[in-house]
């Protein structure tokens, strides 16, 4: 009986030990969860700023009537691309032609008077030596000749002006560009009391884009360049233009002008960029956005977009410390570069930042970090 009891006791003990091992095996076998991390590294990134701008024609010429008359015909199609010298309007030339004929007649009369005056002067010059003509009469003949010569010059000037006015009857484009809508029609009286505005010609290839940057940003940029926090681009700014649909204009622009003073009304520095516009895609007056690359940050720290947790008070990331435990780290962020956050403060090179389910992690959790290439994480961020 005791032998049976002993065997039963041994079997019970074995069952209890097996049950305990079975109950404890999940905890014993459980490993820390695996999380993907990127190792913080310094990188060169462009220091860019995005600013609003407005497109302006490269050259603008107001076409005006320079003589008085009736518009006889419009000689161009509205919106037509024209060359300098292309005829745009014809003003009735009849009155101008009459003025020209009158000026020619006046010139002929004064030239005849000059011939008579010169002939009289030559005769008096031959007679004054033997005192057949007094010195007073001789000087009067000289004055008459000079006056006749001046009248000829005046008449010639009037004729030249009449020819010029007759030429103005053919109103031409002063520059190459696009001729806009006509502001007058056939039969309109123009140039009576003022130089009537007929139309406008605008050169739209290339075009200007005017924009302004706040003086505080300009001063901060210059200080960062002076202190070595940023590297300059040898004075060459890369300027990209963002169209209203968000796409990037294919041609980069060049900075053509930067004001030397601050606008007292807007507290900003006015600048101007120039863009090629062969397809006339950029229309004067349109609002666009410019991405201006002014310098390079050689010590930038980037983290993928998914690694950052934001609330109304702060921005944080999860860092895996030396014990492979999660640690919450408050950071200060800058701009976004290709969907990566620029971290200005809070991280150091070599630290490991979690990019897996950052919003669901818990401080102090022991994890198994899986190092992911920063470029792969960046590609994933772009894809999402």
Give a description of the structure.
It is a single chain. With 384 residues, this protein is α+β, with helices and mostly antiparallel strands. It has three domains: 38-55 and 205-383, Beta Barrel (Elongation Factor Tu (Ef-tu), domain 3); 66-91 and 169-204, Beta Barrel (OB fold (Dihydrolipoamide Acetyltransferase, E2P)), CATH 2.40.50.100; 94-168, Helix Hairpins (Orthogonal Bundle), CATH 1.10.287. Helix content is 31%, strand content 36%. The chain contains five helices and 20 strands. The chain has a 16-stranded mixed β-sheet that branches. Strands 6-5-3-8 form a four-stranded antiparallel β-sheet. Strand 17 (326-337) and strand 18 (340-345) form a beta hairpin. Helix 2 (94-127) packs antiparallel against helix 3 (135-168). The longest helix is centred in the N-terminal third of the chain and has 34 residues, at 94-127. It is elongated, with a radius of gyration of 44 Å. The mean pLDDT is 83.
What is the domain tally? 3
Helicity, in percent? 25-40%
Corresponding CATH architecture of the largest domain: Beta Barrel
Helix count, per DSSP?
A: 5
| Class based on secondary structure composition and strand pairing | alpha+beta
Number of strands: 20
Cα shape: elongated
The CATH C-level name of the largest domain is Mainly Beta
The biggest beta sheet is recorded as: 16 strands, mixed
Low-confidence stretches: none
* Helix-strand topology string: HEEEEEHHEEEEHEEEEEEEEEEEH
* Head-to-tail CA distance between termini: 75 Å
Describe the oligomeric state of these chains in a short phrase: single chain
Rg on CA atoms, Å: 44 Å
What is the CATH topology assignment of the largest domain? Elongation Factor Tu (Ef-tu), domain 3
Strand content: 35-45%
CATH level 4 superfamily of the largest domain: Efflux pump adaptor protein, beta barrel domain
| Average pLDDT figure | 83
């Amino acid at each position: 009986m005791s032998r049976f009891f002993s065997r039963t006791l041994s079997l019970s003990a074995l069952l209890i030990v097996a049950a305990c091992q079975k109950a404890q095996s999940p905890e014993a076998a459980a490993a820390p969860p695996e999380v993907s991390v990127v190792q913080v590294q310094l990188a060169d990134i462009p220091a860019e700023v995005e600013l609003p701008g407005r497109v302006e024609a490269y050259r603008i010429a107001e076409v005006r009537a320079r003589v008085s008359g009736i518009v006889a015909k419009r000689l161009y199609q509205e919106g037509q691309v024209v060359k300098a010298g292309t005829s745009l309007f014809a003003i009735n030339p009849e009155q101008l032609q009459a003025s020209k004929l009158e000026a020619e007649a006046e010139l002929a009369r004064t030239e005849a008077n000059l011939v008579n005056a010169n002939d009289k002067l030559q005769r008096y010059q031959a007679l004054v030596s033997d005192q057949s003509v007094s010195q007073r009469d001789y000087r009067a003949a000289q004055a008459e000749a000079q006056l006749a010569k001046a009248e000829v010059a005046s008449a010639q000037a009037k004729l030249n002006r009449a020819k010029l006015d007759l030429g103005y009857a053919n109103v031409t484009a002063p520059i190459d560009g696009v001729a806009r809508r006509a502001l007058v029609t056939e039969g309109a009286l123009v140039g009576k009391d003022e130089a009537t505005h007929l139309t406008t010609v605008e050169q739209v290839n290339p075009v200007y884009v005017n924009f302004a940057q706040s003086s505080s940003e300009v001063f901060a940029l210059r200080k960062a360049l002076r202190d070595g926090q940023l590297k300059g681009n040898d004075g060459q700014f890369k300027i990209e233009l963002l169209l209203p649909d968000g796409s990037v204009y294919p041609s980069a622009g060049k900075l053509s002008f930067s004001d030397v003073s601050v606008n007292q009304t807007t507290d900003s520095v006015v600048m101007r960029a120039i863009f090629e516009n062969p397809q006339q895609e950029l229309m004067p007056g349109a609002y666009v956005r410019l991405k201006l690359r002014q310098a390079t940050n050689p010590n930038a720290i980037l983290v993928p977009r998914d690694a950052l947790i934001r609330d109304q008070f702060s921005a944080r990331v999860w860092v895996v410390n030396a014990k492979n435990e999660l640690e919450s780290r408050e950071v200060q962020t800058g701009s976004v570069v290709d969907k990566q956050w620029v971290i200005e403060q809070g991280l150091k090179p070599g630290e490991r930042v979690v990019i897996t389910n950052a919003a669901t992690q818990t401080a102090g959790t022991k994890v198994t970090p899986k190092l992911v290439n920063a470029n792969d994480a960046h590609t994933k961020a772009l894809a999402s």
